[in-house]
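Researcher: Here's a chain I'd like modeled. Treat it as a single chain, no partners, no ligands.
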Amino acid sequence: MALLGKGVAAIWHNVAPEFQADYNHWHCHEHVPERVGIPGFLRGRRYVAIEGEPEFFHFYETDGLDTLTSTAYLERLNNPTEWTRRVGVNIKDNNRTLSQVATSIGIGGGAAILTGRLQAAPGQDAALSNWLSNEVLPSLVGQPGIVAGHLLQGDHASSATETAEKAMRDRPDDVADWVLFLEAIEVEPLDPLWKGGALSEASLMQHGATRAALGTYRLHYALSNEDLG
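Model: Modeled as a single isolated chain. Structure tokens:
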């Protein structure tokens, strides 16, 4: 399986340009190492938009969904560092979905990623997930330039837990029903898929989605728990 575990925290947000230098430094030197040091967290990856909104995207692979509601994780969320507090008030438009892995195929990871935040029409979760898991992702992964594909099922109850970090944000987090990732060595193989192809908003809506927020991102930084020693 391309993802390291069965749980994922997927997060998108914006940071105003004047705060981005501090944000980038904090994210690489404090935030991701802090998160990846929590028991059950396996790897963190951060990206910046090629074409999409919000501008920043990052996700954490974990042993399972229960890691994302664990005492150790909530302890960090409810006791943010001074640096986190300084940066946190400048994070806007937060989308954060705690999820479990429904499908993960491929080997390794790519430098570019297509992400989708999907809402399913009432009664269409099974149809949408079956189509993506059994038809679309298997047909795409292994095509030239495409190395991995993942479908995650959002858990609204886990994502709704209130914490001190959430209280710093400008509004409640958006939460997706399903999260889609498609990884490639560069962005060119991904663009046709969401611009009129199998993963376009129109195609996704034909197969059970009522909303599909799509975009492409390039890798900024990655850290696994093994890197921490």
